[in-house]
Amino acid sequence: MKHIRNFCIIAHIDHGKSTLADRLLEYTNTIQITEGQMLDDMDLEKERGITIKSHAIQMEYEKDGQKYVLNLIDTPGHVDFSYEVSRSIAACEGALLVVDASQGVQAQTISNLYMALEHDLEIIPVINKCDMPSAMPDEVEDEIVELIGCERSSIIRASARTGMGVEEILNAIVDRVPHPVGDEEAPLQALIFDSVFNSFRGIIAYYKIVNGVMRKGDHVKFFNTGMEYDADEIGVLKMDMIPRQEMRTGDVGYIISGIKTSSEVRVGDTITHVSRPCSEAIEGFEEVKPMVFAGVYPIDPTEYENLRASLEKLQLNDASLTFTPESSVALGFGFRCGFLGLLHMEIIQERLDREFDMDVITTVPNVFYHIFDKHGNMTEVHNPSAMPDPTAIDYLEEPYIRASIITQTDYIGPIMTLCLGKRGELVKQEYVSGNRVEIYYDIPLGEIVIDFYDKLKSISKGYASFDYHMNGFRRSKLIKLDILLNGEPVDALSTLTHESNAYDLGRRMCEKLKELIPRQQFDIAIQAAIGAKIIARETVKQVRKDVTAKCYGGDVSRKRKLLEKQKRGKKRMKQIGNVEVPQKAFLAVLKLD
Question: Is-contact 425 442, C-beta < 8 A?
């Protein structure tokens, strides 16, 4: 145990943590680097250049003639995947805080750092990309000293691209990160921090042993679910899984026990022996609350069960995804899924398509609201179509967030305009260093869900970084906006919006749908309504066949007779015809601006 070091890497998105992980693996001769980002093994991760999943890998490093085992857990940097980070931190004793030398400390770095400090992790600050011409290592050092109050001499300057400073980082991990503490004689306690699905072996759980020893073939149980299994295979994680006969306190590894159903493995659960169980489960990380909800429906209704199975397998790999069944008049049966943010939602959609070959329709994302009736009873509503009758509602409360935006002083004006347009309230602003400022806003969560992050990046030319956490509920004047096609409400397009935005949003939605809904043999009326009041209307004109083309000359009554016949046919068609809303119309409503 004295020679084990468990550490993770925390950083803002794009500060080079996956490249740094590659260098560490290469330096310790764990693997041969054939291409960049060896730990990001999903196609999606490679294409977008982001880390989505935490990855665990073991390295061996020799210092002063003594061999050390280093367990690295790589973490994502985007604000939507902060749950993955909290789990990695729970399984570590130390963290590398990586900061880009040309960009300085960013919002996500700070929030992940606070998470690490809460768990009493030893922090090793590293300034990455020091070889770049735009690097400002001295200024960034000032920021780090101000942020965590460390000694200047303890900050390591490195470059993951050239390999500069890698040996220094490895030495610092061995010298500064404390070894795991635990009792090998105590009953077994192992914290599950991740799980993956393998179609041949069942569900594979990754864990860190806090106390005790686990041997191959042991009869174990999962503490919270109470399910019992045999440890068919246990071992450590390198680029592949390497079986071992026993795993001791402080080790990070995997267990295969032929588990088939996903609900039996919960991330955060504790593994213990059946014969000598531990008295209590390990406390590691908080339950995550989804922020954004959207309906996910199969395009082909017969695929419903397959979609359920696909979502269950995804949930293993990504414990922050939640889903419950729901049905919609327009789209049939599907699921209401909870996501951590819009990027998370986009990634889940892509993964359903690539990994499980599922074609799905996703409805307009929304957040959850508290609705109080006249008797003072509160219900939580996740879907605008589940709203009770407006006459029964006393008032509504919507969730607010405390947003922290770090930017250069040149962009303060446009960013404030953006936040005010989203009904934000300025809390305070502080100068971080030189010309960089941190602005705090209270903003309704519903306003930032759709396109806030994209707009922020474009008006600040990519310089602003954004992070947020929940900040309670407040009363608000929200109304439900319905979209009607030929008088029939399309429940998948209904949204909750603030009074001040309703008319504008209704008009824009009608105009957008008019462009996207294909023309039929009859007129289609697109209307936006608040309750029984219509606030906007557009009409998709009918496609008409020229029935009088074959009438040459003769009496006008012949033409009139044909036109009357066509009119009666159109009227009958309108009564029985239904309007298909194409998938791109649902997506276009999101990107109205």
Answer: yes
Asked if 452 and 425 count as a contact pair (C-beta separation under 8 A), the reply is no
Virtual CA dihedral for 520, 523, 526, 532, nearest 10 degrees? Answer: -140
Q: Residue 381: beta bridge partners?
A: 369
Q: Which CATH number do you get for residue 237? A: 2.40.30.10
Q: How far apart are CA 239 and CA 202, in angstroms?
A: 19
Has residue 220 been placed in a domain? yes
68 with 212, same domain: the answer is no
Q: How far apart, in whole angstroms, are the C-alpha atoms of residue 194 and residue 252?
A: 11
**What is the identity of the amino acid at 452?**
F
Among all chains, which residue has been given the structure tokens 């909290």? 86
> 436: Cβ–Cβ under 8 A, 6 or more apart, which residues?
104, 406, 407, 408, 409
| 382-438 tens-digit pLDDT | 777 777 777 788 888 888 888 888 887 888 888 888 888 888 899 998 887 767 788
Strand ranges of the sheet holding 332-339, from the earlier edge strand across to the other edge: 322-328, 332-339, 292-298, 360-362
**pLDDT per residue over 126-156, tens digit each?**
888 888 888 888 888 888 887 777 788 888 8
Q: Which of 362, 394, 418 is the last residue of a domain?
A: 362
pLDDT digits (tens, 9 = 90+) for 476-494: 888 888 888 877 787 777 7
Give residues with Cβ within 8 angstroms of 315, minimum separation 6.
262, 321, 322, 323
Q: How many residues in the chain?
A: 593
CA distance 561 to 567: 10
Dihedral (CA of 27, 29, 35, 36) sign? negative
Q: How many helices (H) and strands (E) does the chain have?
A: 14, 31
338: its two tokens: 């909870």
